[in-house]
């Protein structure tokens, strides 16, 4: 069994969330902050040896004040983020324990995970070196310029990337060393640029990334139908608490 470190970026600006009180990873969802639901999916696993949440400088003081007890009891580490998502992941990567074989990067605002999806992508990464969850594209895609359709794009062989994205530690470190400030929409793109193949593991549309406030309502319903996480000796002492009150 591989040892896995999980990096959870939560340092974004949440511009599309449109809430004056919360950024999306910290918004209440079924009585707890979104990021706590997400972290719990990994904290109960025997193969996960480290969980790091990445927080923007501007949020750090308030985050520590409201979630300090959670962090201490759950053993979650905190890292200060950077200007871009890739900068944040790179900073967290420097904190990964040397005995972790794999590093999983998972959006803190993506709380609707099932154990079987995590199992599958972890197993594929352990076997192939790099793997991500993704779902086949089913929509009709249009290329647009100046408000007009210029092309209907074939969806054949197109997949929507999700997280977790899981990599051999040395592959991900190599990819970030070679990044040299390049922009990247996800970590798999950097690993691809470094010359490593990335395996696709079919996920589910239920693996929702919260982007708008309406997504919170949908996520709450998804959490009700997902199988409960396996509890490998772990129980969340804050399971019923709304830490934002």
TrEMBL record:
Site (Transition state stabilizer): 16, 24
Family the UniProt entry places it in: Belongs to the IspD/TarI cytidylyltransferase family. IspD subfamily.
EC code: 2.7.7.60
Keywords: Isoprene biosynthesis, Nucleotidyltransferase, Transferase
Record flagged with keyword Oxidoreductase: no
CDD domains on file: CDP-ME_synthetase
SUPFAM superfamilies: Nucleotide-diphospho-sugar transferases
EC category name: transferase
Pfam families, sorted: IspD (PF01128)
MF (Gene Ontology): 2-C-methyl-D-erythritol 4-phosphate cytidylyltransferase activity
Role description: Catalyzes the formation of 4-diphosphocytidyl-2-C-methyl-D-erythritol from CTP and 2-C-methyl-D-erythritol 4-phosphate (MEP).
NCBIfam families: ispD (TIGR00453)
Organism: Bythopirellula goksoeyrii
A Gene Ontology biological process term: isopentenyl diphosphate biosynthetic process, methylerythritol 4-phosphate pathway
Cited InterPro entries: IspD, IspD/TarI, IspD/TarI_cytidylyltransf_bact, Nucleotide-diphossugar_trans
Gene3D superfamilies linked to this entry: Spore Coat Polysaccharide Biosynthesis Protein SpsA, Chain A
Name this polypeptide is given: 2-C-methyl-D-erythritol 4-phosphate cytidylyltransferase
Chemical reaction(s) catalysed: 2-C-methyl-D-erythritol 4-phosphate + CTP + H(+) = 4-CDP-2-C-methyl-D-erythritol + diphosphate
